[in-house]
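dumping this here before i forget
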Amino acid sequence: MTVMTRQANFMLPEDLLSELKQLVGQRQQSRFVAEALRKELQREKMKNVLNTSFGAWKDEDHPELGEGVDHFVRSRRKSTRSGRVA
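structure:
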């Protein structure tokens, strides 16, 4: 599969550019930077989603969890186990 690419010029700190050149082959540098940028963009998107969804869960909307999630899960497991035939 061919990915369309375009040239972009970025200013990088000298130490980053030097380290990139030392660690990554010359013909792989664009791919390396693109992958790093893709990962960082994904991380930023996730951070934005978490920030915008914070507070969406309200305790009063879930009274069954008043004693805690662990208690709720244990009670659910107990109810399904009691219905099993040995």
